[in-house]
Amino acid sequence: MKKVLIANRGEIAIRVIRACRELGIKSVAIHSTADRDSLHCKLADESVCIGPAESSKSYLSIPAIMSAAEVAGVDAIHPGYGFLSESAEFAAVCRQYGITFIGPTPEQIKILGNKVEARALARKAGVPLLPGSNGAITDDAQAIAAAKEIGFPLIIKAAAGGGGRGMKVVLSEADLPKQLSLARSEALSGFGDDTVYMERFLTNPRHIEIQLMGDQHGNLVYLGERDCTTQRRKQKLIEESPSPVLKEAERQKVGERALELARLVNYQSLGTAEFLYENGNFYFMEVNTRIQVEHPVTEEVMGIDLVKEQIKIAQGERLTLTQSQIKSSGHAMEVRINAEDPVSFAPWPGKITGYHEPGGIGVRVDSMIYAGYTVPSNYDSMLAKLIVKGRDRDECIQRMKRSLREFKVEGIRTNIPFYLELFQDERFLRSEITINWLEDVYLKGRKKS
Fold first, then answer.
1. pTM of the predicted model, to two decimals?
2. I need a labelling partner for 299 at 20 to 30 A (CA). Which of 178, 213, 283, 449 fits?
């Protein structure tokens, strides 16, 4: 592999550029007209404009990206996360062009990316599942019949989706037809596919995910877990590893279950199996067939560069570690720094007039910004990720608090003040939370005060 095109933008594009450089591989950045001055364009060996600001005409345009790949003469494409990273069609087009797609095969993306098919695989692998519909739900009568077996509350989910879109909680049969229609409409709009399914809704679970890594020679390992319970509107805000609530036997059990699922499809590349955890039980949710936003916390506790490993796997190299050799050390946390109002969470694009990153031992910043950069309004509001590591969770929290105070982004608003406030809450610090705690308890209490 001599030259890699990064089919993405922002901090993940920079992350891939750095990994390529350490491997002696040239990198090609793509950008829309809105991203002409983005840092990833400045750091890559080459950059190519692929279209206007609209994602559909640039970062989501397979013809535009493949044209750039042909012009630049690349032999591989890294999709990052989001955009086309879980597009089986994109991976298949790369194969047709004779370009290596740095990720799993189109067939693996297709079967695991569809949550209905992934649930069927999980059932075959013996992975615990919540009671749910046997396949897709297509009409009201089918939904009502399935609901009688599942029970209320239940949740409707988009088979091809994620990030909270096409997801509706239903408390009673009377509300089911309306919510089914809304979920299917959102799924069609967001993913081009209105297929939905239903499952039992857990009211107070935690969110636990397992990092998977497999090569093209049948070797598979899991790299511990990440706890992603701190969420707002189904979007993760803070991730940490290891989970502060799991016992060693529990993490080993869920890790081995995730491996069984991955083995059924001979999984290659990085991937993440996601679970809900409540009252000592795990329930499978989905598999993400890409690098995750929160991958740095795993890198910090495992001492492994996941992006470099992903590239090596795509080159046909074997894993160099067996499961027994993988050991976690210390505790790591990540917070997502967004361009948004810290109270209303409304997006806040604009020009950054001053910028200072925190530093010191155990502090890492994966960022896409610099002083003088204008944050566009066209894309996701995430600017940077602050990742810290300590010998244990207490030291990690203290280091995070110190680093947040040092982190300065001037000219726009960010959610840094929100994190500084949250890291004072005793319930959060003791990790006495669930995925609904931030919205249903903390933010409601914040409004009252």
1. 0.94
2. 283
